[in-house]
Amino acid sequence: MKKIIAMALVLVMALGLFAACGEDKETKKTTTAATTEATTEATTEATAEATEGTGEAAAFTTVNPGKLTMATNAYFPPYEYYEGETIIGIDAEIAAAIAEKLGLELEIVDMQFDSIISSVNAGSADMGLAGMTVTPERQEEVDFSISYASGVQSIIVKEGSPITTVDDLYAEGAAYKVGVQLGTTGDIYSTDDFGEELVTQYTNGNEAVAALLGGDVDCVIIDNEPAKAFVEANEGLVILETSYADEDYAACLAKGNTALLEAIDNAIMELTADGTIDAIIAKYIK
Ligand code: ARG
After folding, report:
1. Is the CB of 201 under 6 A from ligand 1?
2. Confidence (pTM)
3. What whole-number distance in Å separates Cα of residue 276 and Cα of residue 255?
4. Is 76 in the pocket of ligand 1 (CB under 6 A)?
5. How far is the CA of 259 from the centre of ligand 1 (A)?
6. What is the pLDDT of residues 110-150, one digit of tens each?
């Protein structure tokens, strides 16, 4: 194939030289035609390579050949969390199923939640999968896959707290201290709603919950399923019945990485249609 491209290039150059003696217009046309041919050939080869073992039509490349590198923050049960040294959970299993469909091996990289988007954009990970909510602001920085799950921002308080509904946080004269995980929608929305002075950002949900137990904050705003896991793991906490926000979770990819995005979208569609994603979610959320 390299030979064909080289030959095409020689041809382009020869035509260019030849035409340079004649009319200018002619040159451009000929050059364009030859270049187009060479490009088409190259693209076809790339497609064939990427298709091997996947059965999908799109040509994609990954940051580590043969691997699907997933950026996450693994302190977010039941989506991603450690069991010993291994990261397990809904996102980890869905990612493994996507990787299998793409003929790739899954590799999970754990990092701060607010580093996921930059690592995807820097080309150190193929996708972020982290119970990440699709928001218009994030859509300006990354592309999102189709959604694979929905989420709810919930409020955790100590038993007997004066905060009994979400409205209490907005009551006249209320100045409740809110704990959140840095860079999450819980952080972004509550900072908007209640002001920076009242919101404390922790690196992960565990720390926010510890602060609530220690009396440093009056409530924690976090996604509902992690909230349930934290409440289950700690005495004396409850989740308010009323929720704070409804959201959709999706994988994020570097902007313009359309071939991989399409492949991931197709995989999610297939895994939704055949019940795989439902089964994974049901395994972790009773
Ligand atoms: N859904 C929230 C957001 O997108 C929180 C996600 C936190 N995920 C995590 N793996 N720590 O902002």
Report:
1. no
2. 0.79
3. 27
4. yes
5. 25
6. 999 999 999 999 999 999 999 999 999 999 999 999 999 99
Which atom number of ligand 1 is nearest to the Cα of residue 74? 10
Atom number of ligand 1 nearest to Cα 79: 10
Q: Say yes or no: CB of residue 130 within 6 Å of ligand 1.
A: yes
Distance (Å) from CA 130 to ligand 1 centroid: 6
Helices 24-51 and 2-20 cross at an angle (nearest 10°) of 170
φ and ψ at 103, to 5 degrees? 70, 30
**pLDDT surpassing 80 at residue 18:** no
Name the closest-CA residue to atom 5, ligand 1: 184
- DSSP H stretches of helix in 179-223: 185-194, 205-213
Residue 57, pLDDT score: 53
Cβ–ligand 1 distance for 187 under 6 Å, the answer no
Quote the CA–CA distance of 20 and 30 in Å, as a whole number. Answer: 11
| Rounded Cα–Cα distance for residues 206 and 75 (Å) | 7
**Backbone angles phi and psi of 157, in degrees to 5:** -130, 170
Check if the beta carbon of residue 187 is closer than 8 Å to that of residue 220. no
Mean pLDDT of the chain: 85
C-alpha dihedral sign at 180, 185, 188, 192: negative
CB of 229 within 8 A of CB of 162? no
Q: In the prediction, which pLDDT does 199 show?
A: 98
Is a pLDDT exceeding 80 seen at residue 15?
no
